[in-house]
Amino acid sequence: MRSRRTHLLAVTGAALAALALTACNDGTGTKDDGASRPSSTASSATATGGKGTATSASGDTAGADSSSGSSGSAKGSSASTGSGSSGSGSSGSGSSGSSSSGRSSSGGSSSGGSSDAWDPKNRVLCNGSNTKVTAQPVSRPLNHMLITVRNTGSKYCDLTYFPVLRFDEMQWAPQADEKTHPQAVTTLAPGESGYAAVLLSSADGSGEGGMTGHRLTVGFQGTTPNSSGGASAIPSLPAKGVYYDSSLKVTYWQQNQSDIAGW
């Protein structure tokens, strides 16, 4: 009986050894379901945990990106505000330019004072009350005299037509040479001067009724020919007087002396 039991045990031990050897030779090793599951579960948990960590990291990254985006937005907003500020500055600059332009425009109106000359409120007739008149005989051309009228008033004044001259008690007035008629009325700003030339006598002696005048009256015309323009002027003459004859003639009032220099 003992011999048989021993033989069964030997057979059983050999069979188990063979099974173990066979299991090792298939390259996978033995797999115990009971032990593997927890290990697999732990691995899965670890993997899941890793994924969770990765997700969390990804979430953090996303959060960072979001924060960065928010910061970017904030920066963008700040940049936009800066741009707006810059734009405002530009606008301010434009306003300043406009103001400067306004000042320039104002300056233009003052520099455009010539336009004031055409305002009836700023224009009067030149006459003996607002001018200083001088009468000076000249050596060239021969037998000529120059009359100068300077505006001493505060407004523009017009020298219309030509001067009306009378020596002493003469009963006639010399006429003007029409060739000297200016294209426009001679207008004097305050302080400016106008001119007229006088032919006193003929150079060839063809004039008649020659005499010496000691007192000269210069009359001013109004807005129509031969009308009165106001007070007359009595400029000084040389002590010896001025010789004239029937050739006595005058020019129209001129803005520039050069316009009658060779008359």
Set down the secondary structure blueprint.
Blueprint: H1 2-25, H2 33-111, E1 123-125, E2 131-138, E3 144-151, E4 156-159, E5 164-167, E6 186-188, E7 193-199, E8 211-213, E9 216-219, E10 242-244, E11 249-250
Parallel strand pairs: 1-4
Antiparallel strand pairs: 2-3, 3-7, 4-6, 5-9, 7-11, 8-10
In short:
With 263 residues, the protein is of the alpha+beta class.
Features:
single chain; about 260 residues; alpha+beta; 2 domains; four-stranded antiparallel beta sheet; three-stranded mixed beta sheet; 2 helices; disordered N terminus
Mean pLDDT: 71
**So how many helices?**
2
Question: What general form does the structure show?
Answer: globular
Rounded to the nearest angstrom, the distance between the terminal CA atoms is: 179 Å
Instruction: Give the strand line-up of the largest sheet.
Output: 2-3-7-11
Helices and strands, in order, run as HHEEEEEEEEEEE
Strand content: 15-25%
- Number of β-strand runs: 11
Mind telling me the C-alpha Rg?
60 Å
Total discrete domains: 2
Q: What portion of residues is helical?
A: 25-40%
| Class from helix and strand fractions | alpha+beta
The biggest beta sheet reads:
4 strands, antiparallel
Regions with little confidence, pLDDT below 50 for 5+ residues = 1-113
